[in-house]
Design goal:
It is built from 16 helices and 14 strands. With 397 residues, it is an alpha/beta fold. The structure holds pyridoxal-5'-phosphate. Pyridoxal-5'-phosphate (PLP) binds next to helix 3.
Length: 397
Amino acid sequence: MNDKPSFDKTHNQSQDQRMKPATVAAQGLGWIDEKTRALVPGVQVSTTYIRNPDNSYVDNRNYSRTSHTACLQPEAVLKELEQGAAAMLFSSGMAAATACFLALKPGDHVVAPKILYFELRKWLTSSATEWGLNVDLVDMTDLDALKRAMKPGKTKLVWAETPANPLWDITDIAEAAKIAHEARAHFGVDSTTASPVLTRPLELGADIVMHSATKYLNGHSDVLAGALIAKVEDDYWERLKTVRKQVGGVLGGFEAWLLTRGMRTLYPRVRAQVANAQALAERFAKHPHIAHVLYPGLPDFPGHAVAKKQMKGGFGGMMSIRVRGGEAAAVKTAANVHIWKRATSLGSVESLIEHRASLEGAGTPVPHDLLRLSVGIEDADDLYNDMDQALAAAHSR
Ligand code: PLP
């Protein structure tokens, strides 16, 4: 009887020469199915595990809400890509992000950016506050503002998102980590829009990296997933494990399998997206119907210097444009695209366009003339020409 997960890790890098991240991702760390010698391990959907006659469990695994064999490979890949000590998958990015706050105690103080993924901002300022967290939102691009917000002894978590939705504010990860650690707070970074291809927050001083794996990690708009990767397995990580187990935001087996498959192409996808985005941002910056391009890869972008320091190999695939003529012209531009797809989300192979303020709703800090663009891997000329004709249509009488 073989009651171990049937992965063959003989190609694991502990025995091989250390693999570069693109190789780790492409080969899923080289894990295969040892029983069948299948190159691609199969989908694992079981919710429960056989107990040994002596009452013990294999690897303490008794139920898939506690630990799922389907997640072992993608978690091992993410741990390696982020150079962490441990990784955990969740059912969504929000499940992963909110776990970081639910692992604290009522009365604890947290500092988060004013510009961040809007659902997390809404949750922090409503449910999390009602539950008892003291939440301060600051301009994370201003390190003095962060220093002033810290309450040593009370601040338990500093949260950053960089580049941050949808203005692409850049937080200096290394400097913000120092400020958090001086106050003995943990420092968590939502690195969804950078992806491990461009930034490794743990190497820069972060304690926890969070991803909406729905985005670049999976990359095909067909999986909702979240991930946390820890620098060390400390008490906070143990509490995070308990939150996942008890709140139950775990990833299903099929999604875990799809995510591993998606991550195999992470590096070439992101590199193509970055090249397209840089080329488009430079062309859009000269477009007569565009008032402003927000993209960290443009030299006049306020966070450009910090982005250059901490984003290796490019400035990401996300940008926003502010359309001349205000909200009506922006909405009309989005209405007239054919190749760009009018949809929310980001990080996939296909390019998406979104009038962000109307998605975020009342109280949004997002300008109403702004269109958020997630650049895919299509031909950059097709993307430019489609936007050009949509802008022209929006500005025609
Ligand atoms: N963080 C960022 C930067 C995001 O863009 C999103 C989703 O758009 C999330 C977190 C939440 O992720 P999910 O939609 O997978 O819950």
